[in-house]
Amino acid sequence: MHRGSVSTVFAFLVASFAISSSAQEPNARDILEAAISQWRGTSSYSEMTMIIHRPDWQRQMSMRAWTKGEDHSLVRVTAPARDAGSATLLNNNDMWTFAPNINRVIKVPSSMMAQSWMGSDFSNREVARSDDILDEYDHSLLKTEQLESHLVYHIQSIPHESAAVVWGREVLQVREDHVVLRHDYYDQDDRRVKTLLTTDIAAMGGRVVPRVQRMTKADAPEEWTEIQVNAIDFDVDLSDRLFTVSNLRNPRQ
Amino acid sequence: MLELRSLSLTLAWRNIWRHPRRTWLTVSAMVFSNCLLVFMNCLQAGMYQLMIDSTLDIFTGHIQLQAPGYLDEPDIRKSIPRIQSQAARVREELEGVAVSARASGFALASSDERSYGIQLIGVQPESEALVSTLPGLINQGRYLQVSDQKTVVIGSVLARNLKVGLGDELVILGSGRDGSMAADVLTIVGILESNMPDIDRNMAFITLDYFQDVFFMQDSGHSIVIHVEDFSLIATKAAQLNRYFAQNDDLVVLDWETLEEGLRQAIEADLVSAWFIYAVLIVLVAFSVMNTQLMSVLERTREFGIVMALGVRATHMVRQVLLEAGLLATLGLLLGVSLGALLVLIISQTGLAFPGMEEVMGRFNLPDRLYPELTLFALFLGPAIVFMSSMLAALYPALRLYLLQPIEAMKVA
Known about the structure:
The complex is a heterodimer of chains A (about 250) and B (about 425).
Chain A: H1 2-24, H2 28-40, E1 43-54, E2 57-68, E3 72-79, E4 87-91, E5 94-99, E6 104-108, H3 124-128, H4 132-136, E7 137-147, E8 150-159, E9 169-175, E10 180-186, E11 192-204, E12 207-217, E13 220-234, H5 245-249
Antiparallel strand pairs in A: 1-2, 1-13, 2-3, 3-4, 4-5, 5-6, 7-8, 8-9, 9-10, 10-11, 11-12, 12-13
Chain B: H1 2-16, H2 20-60, E1 63-66, H3 83-93, E2 97-110, E3 115-123, H4 125-131, E4 138-141, E5 151-155, H5 156-162, E6 169-175, E7 181-192, H6 197-202, E8 203-207, H7 208-214, E9 223-228, H8 234-244, E10 252-255, H9 256-259, H10 261-298, H11 301-309, H12 314-350, E11 352-353, H13 358-363, E12 369-370, H14 376-399, H15 406-411
Parallel strand pairs in B: 3-8, 5-7
Antiparallel strand pairs in B: 1-9, 1-10, 2-3, 2-6, 2-9, 4-7, 5-8, 6-7, 11-12
Helix pairs in contact in B: 1-12, 2-10, 2-12, 2-14, 10-14, 12-14
């Protein structure tokens, strides 16, 4: 009990120190947190198109996505016809996939989280929890630059030893209005592996958000996956039932 | 001339038995190292062939045809078109080979309780058993049949992990060749146990035709596996295939050394470290020979001085001393090789167990008991090197005789 109260006081001191220091210089973590909440809101509903491009072929999928809080989301594919109805549910750390042709729900094991999601350049983990980066990484502000009429923060995030990620570090460029412009992923040897680049920014659902983002592999610029947001609503009223396995299997939307 | 030579030989023979105990000690050093070298070389030869055979026979085959780049980065899209008919063509063109086509993809295998990422292999049931021993390692149920649809054979560890048995359902989920979702519910008809962790834990087999359906492969696949009946003809067959497919730039011919680079490297690394130790052994034996010969020359300094004074040329004496060393080395060689061969023959009947090494052995698919293989090469390689280094070592004491002054030498007590 006694020790608990001491550490509470200590935490309070640290917190107040953090606040006072952020008065002079923006705190890297705060910038990221603001960017993520700008993007996700407390809840959201969006319609998106995903284009997977390879030198010899290209594939386009349409999907609808619901998110709530930091760790609930549901993605349903609506086109092409062969994949329509397949869906992915994320609930906290768990991920399930629904295959409509066999009417089965399959749990994605944690060992598969680094695998590609639906053949794209996004891993299951990236689709699952874009907010992991907040708590499992240490953040620092590399530099601030002026881009046209906006300030852009370059933030370096290095995962904790214990974080279950494959990256050595990530570098994000966040505009002062909380739009992520660019996200570079580096491996343990500090080679850039892939980059998520925002190619179009638009005001949608009452917020300024990246409308088109493209993930490109560093060693194969001809291989990329683009996500286009066609419509998005923020702070919609979503029931918790939406994010359950039984709902994944029996769509009512 | 002939008489002189036989005289030198008689002299040399008598000379080495002047000190029987010293000679026997030197010879036994040679015999011991020769014996050890013969045994170890035969054991290694047996082990390497076993490693190669078991690794290649179980799944990889001796030669594979694949799409370029597939080996380094397997991608379902890097495929060989019309794979069944191409495999049939290889079967017709080449003599003394067995051929089977495969397709392969990554999938999530899921039972009611659990999911695991696995390698799903599409095989031709009618010819798979000719290129792989896996169909014969079915532990429960049966292997795939040509007409099978929606049936799967899985590894024993995977079955245990998924908590499934014969007749149970297995849900597979993967990405098809066009990137769309490939999913189906299969029935487990067989469980195989190879004792190779990679296979038993990570692999499941379906028919090639069905694989092509589920993964939207049309008529394509990923590898044509070739088993060459005569191991020594692999390079010839690979060259033949290269000529045959020279104008096809959508596939490459890969031999086992490329396919199983780790195996080749493991053999090379083992060989290098073993020969490092053998080299130390051989050098020690050589020094012991040098020591013996040096002593035998030094103790005869007076003698050499006298025969020199009588008009015998130094060259002749040097030859005489080298002949003695040669006799010594030949004795060591003959006894060492015979004893070594005997040891190999005995152990090759009983086998040699390595307690505590089961896990390492399992990685290379080796049984827990090894049998040395008696080949002429393995038999004579080590002893021949010992022979040559003994002769080299004898050069120093022998060549010293050129510096001998008859008068000085005769003064030596």
